[in-house]
Design a protein that fits this description.
single chain; Cytidine Deaminase, domain 2; 2 domains; 6-stranded mixed beta sheet; binds NADP nicotinamide-adenine-dinucleotide phosphate
């Protein structure tokens, strides 16, 4: 088998990630891309997954080749080929049947049913390499991976505030803090989520429609399910009753119950747009994966309890503050959008053992951090089926 250059493989993986991004952002299935390379490095075929019930990326790519054309080729895939017969057959079998000699993938499939494709390929004599461009692969799939590892939807919490941190004036008015570009981005973020979550307080105070709309106020093609969290019922004349998806009232404040039920229904991403009470409850429970903070160049002032984005989150002393890391900063018209994630928790620091000056150097296995190789030939032992803990979550 001719060895492809590392650059050719990385280029193919980046292309596969671009192809994956053509798939739908919402729904239960991951976005996956695949590039099939000839032994000389030439691209033979490309494919991507277009959503539940359609061909997986590998099968999509293979479908454009004539019989025997994939023999001896390398498949570069963003996610470990699945091992699972669902609405479509297992990709690992399709690759074996097509005569693929080598599979290089980025992210391991954490699925209990779908995982295990690497072992199947390896057992059939296919060379397998895992974790290629793993950082990029995991970042691309973060919503799907987080949802599947935690068995709850990926949670984005959004708020819009003035530069002095107020989300409303002292009389409760809060509309139009940000400008049209920021508001349009909110609609796009809604459309890219499976559900929008608000508390009963926001529905009663603002009577929102919670639809995803374009800049001409038209409904966008994708409409997330509106979910109202809280014990109270919403008014019978609430605008939400006219939502194209209907409205879900939970009748409970238990966020874990709500998220677990939504996950069971196939919801993998939620966009929390509630008021300060619901937002604080999500933060306090450690259930926020991504913060989307819109900041407008305006000062509102005041000290009302409903004027802040979040209230009590259980932080009494600065050492307990929730540390975040900023992932992106974007100007939208005159406003700023900050995207932040919970900061990685540093590993506990154990006191260094006292070492005598003439002690010989340690010879045993290194303790503590054990970096995985950037690429490793897969074998049954290198593929753990237990869900990984993502470094940011
Ligand atoms: N600037 C912004 O981005 C933004 C966004 C949204 C809202 N707002 C403003 O926020 C204000 C409404 O504030 P709010 O805090 O009342 O709204 P909220 O957080 O949407 O709703 C609060 C209600 O949600 C229920 N709830 C659900 N889960 C809960 C939990 N785990 N813990 C506690 N309560 C829970 C409770 O009602 P039950 O008694 O029914 O359980 C609670 O009273 C409005 O003035 C609105 O304009 C601003």
């Amino acid at each position: 088998m001719t060895e492809l250059s590392s650059t050719a493989v990385d280029t193919a993986m980046r292309r596969a990630l671009q192809l994956a991004a053509l798939g739908p952002v919402t729904g239960t299935n991951p976005r996956v891309g695949c590039v099939i390379l000839a032994p000389n490095g030439m691209t033979l075929a490309e494919g991507w997954h277009r959503g539940a019930g359609t061909a997986h990326a590998e099968v999509d790519a293979l479908s454009s080749l004539s019989p025997g054309q994939a023999r001896g080729a390398t498949a570069v895939v963003t996610l470990e080929p699945c091992n699972h017969t669902g609405r479509t057959g297992p990709c690992a079998e399709a690759l074996i049947d097509a005569g693929i000699a080598r599979v290089i993938y980025s992210v391991a499939d954490p699925g209990v049913n779908s995982g295990g494709g690497a072992e199947t390929l390896h057992a059939a004599g296919v060379a397998v390499e895992a974790a290629r461009l793993l950082t990029e692969g995991e970042a691309f799939l973060v919503r799907w991976l987080t949802a599947n590892r935690l068995s709850r939807p990926f949670v984005s919490l959004k708020w819009a505030a003035s530069l002095d941190g107020r989300t409303a004036a002292s009389d409760g008015t809060s509309q139009w803090i940000t400008g049209s570009a920021a508001r349009q981005r909110v609609h796009e973020q809604r459309a890219a989520s499976d559900a929008i979550l608000v508390g009963t307080g926001t529905v009663i105070a603002d009577n929102p429609s919670l639809t995803a709309r374009g800049d001409g106020d038209e409904l966008l093609g994708a409409q997330p399910l509106p979910v109202v969290i809280g014990e109270r019922g919403i008014p019978t004349d609430a605008r939400l009753h006219g939502h194209p998806r209907g409205v879900r009232e939970t009748g409970t404040r238990d966020l874990t119950v709500v998220l677990t039920e939504l996950f069971a229904e196939g919801i993998r991403s939620v966009y929390v747009e509630g008021g300060p009470t619901l937002a604080s409850a999500f933060v306090a429970a450690g259930l926020v994966d991504e913060y989307l903070v819109y900041l407008a160049p305006v000062l509102i002032g005041g000290a009302g309890p409903r004027q802040l984005a979040i209230g009590d989150i259980g932080v009494a002393t600065i050492g307990d503050a929730r540390r975040l890391q900023i992932e992106a900063v974007e100007m939208l018209g005159a406003d700023l959008l900050l995207t932040a994630r919970p900061a990685a928790t540093p590993p506990p620091v154990s006191p260094a053992p006292a070492v005598a000056a003439d002690s010989p150097p340690a010879t045993g296995p290194a303790t503590g951090f054990d970096p995985a190789p950037a690429s490793a030939s897969a074998s049954a032992s290198t593929h753990e089926r237990t869900p990984n803990v993502h470094r940011n979550y």
